[in-house]
Design goal:
disordered N terminus, alpha/beta, about 180 residues, binds zinc ion, 6-stranded mixed β-sheet, single chain
């Protein structure tokens, strides 16, 4: 199933229900010793395969000049989703929990921008986001960050989100439907 080269790991990700075959490339994770490529793959398997389709690459890129032609815009960023190239870049890994949250948060942006139908996106932005409680302070920045944070908490099966009933139900019944 895996084709491994020195710096790159290509995952063929098959989903039992949808028979989706997803080719994802992992790059650069050998530069650190906190998580293994298998942990990345196990984390991805917690998500519906449909959420991963369209994603091209997940990279660990602690040196902003290393791989990508454009500089990291904000040095405090720990992750980024590049919508045009369908890449997720992880800039910082401290622990398994932090990595998984960052990974799911960035995939949440991918899902929000490329999978959630416009009507549902509008519902999130105009009905759930305004004047709501937020799962983290970061989530209050804008509807997309709120969605990404809620997505990460839901995917990690953490309790925090279940107190925010409307957002929890949105994730359960309208996003994680597989
Ligand atoms: Zn974000």
């Amino acid at each position: 199933m895996y084709r491994i080269t020195e710096r790159t790991k290509t995952i063929v990700f098959k989903d039992k229900n949808s028979h989706l075959s997803i080719n994802l490339v992992l790059v650069g994770f050998a530069q650190q010793g906190i998580i293994t490529a298998d942990f990345v793959i196990d984390s991805l398997r917690l998500l519906p395969a449909a959420h991963l389709s369209g994603l091209k690459e997940i990279s660990f890129n602690p040196d902003d000049s290393a791989i990508y032609p454009y500089p990291v815009r904000d040095r405090n960023r720990i992750g980024e989703f590049a919508q045009d190239s369908r890449q997720i870049m992880i800039y910082k890994i401290d622990s398994h929990g932090q990595f998984q949250h960052t990974l799911f948060h960035e995939i949440g942006h991918h899902v929000y921008h490329t999978k959630v139908p416009p009507m549902l996106k509008k519902e999130w932005a105009t009905q759930l986001f305004p004047k709501s409680q937020f799962v983290t302070q970061y989530a209050s920045i804008n509807p997309s960050e709120d969605f990404a944070e809620c997505y990460a908490f839901y995917a990690k099966r953490e309790q925090n989100l279940s107190k925010l009933v409307a957002k929890y139900r949105f994730m359960k019944y309208k996003v994680f439907t597989q």
